[in-house]
Amino acid sequence: MYAEERQQRIVEQARAQGRAEVAALAADLGVTAETIRRDLTALERHGLLRRVHGGAIPVDRLRFEPALATRDAVRQDEKERIARRALEELRDAATVILDAGSTTSRLAELLPTDRELTVVTDSIAIATTLAARPNVNLLLLGGRVRSRTMAAVGDWAISQLRGLLVDVAFVGTNGVSNARGLTTPDPDEAAVKRAMIQAGRHVVLLADHTKVGDDQFARFGDVSDVDVLISDQGLDAATATELAAAGPRVERA
To answer: Within 10 Å of residue 120's Cβ, how many Cβ atoms?
Structure first.
């Protein structure tokens, strides 16, 4: 296979799956990881892909934020493991924040039913999951609801969070790196996430390995603002060590 053919296959896979990973491409195309890295560099130079940790994403993805239903359908096993590991951080907490997101939605489903909990969330999906539970005192933040994420954003949501101090804040992210911190595509959601971090005594960030190095438009914190970062086994040990150097305990579920 010529380099041009191989690079076309890489672009097609990235567009179809939302991401192209070096190890998988090398195995699929029968070449070395270094060859794939050179291909990705060339494709980035031509403006077709953007390099991220472990692979690349199509440039088109940088312009559009996937809807909640789309995100919920991908990497389900990883998100389930992350959510189960995050549940261990609940400990004896009585008050928690659950940020909107596909992984935090899984965590909401796993919350214990044998103890009283006060749960604050900006997510309509999470509120729907928890509303009928008799042991949950549910506080749904008000504000403008973003149809793409079904999350309440804006000054109403932020003003309510400013008056809170909770035991644990479980926060999601679209991107995380030591260089750029915690990022998400929408500035309004970034502002809510920032307020959630400030409201939490213990802050737990949930981020599967594809979020690492995938810096987004709006920044809402530093890696050092997080007490625990929970990812999956796709996050390599060296990168986990680099993230931990900024302060958080890094777990690979």
So the answer is: 21
